[in-house]
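Sample intake sheet
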Amino acid sequence: MINDELKILEVPNIKGRDKIERDEVVKILFEQRKNIEETFKENECIKMDLTNGEIIGLKSTAEFGKLKIGDLPALDYIIRNDYKYNKSTIINLGNVDMLFKELS
């Protein structure tokens, strides 16, 4: 089973939103880049939760038998089964290293 804990970075200016434009997401990511890289040091898979105003991430250590469960499936499982997040509006951002490589 997945026992990893979510890492959370609060981003108050997105809280309670149902929609956000792509250029605004990019702006927020660049403004928060230092905080994101410091919070998610292990190249976690991250998502932006507009409902709660957070960036949430997870680095999976879970296994199913001998099969390692990846970061994204583990994060999706936790979100889907957590009362706080299961009805949230969430944007998938990918792994931290790849995200900023793509944006730079």
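Comment: The chain has a mean pLDDT of 92. The beta strands are 7-10, 45-49, 54-58, 63-64, 67-68, 90-95.
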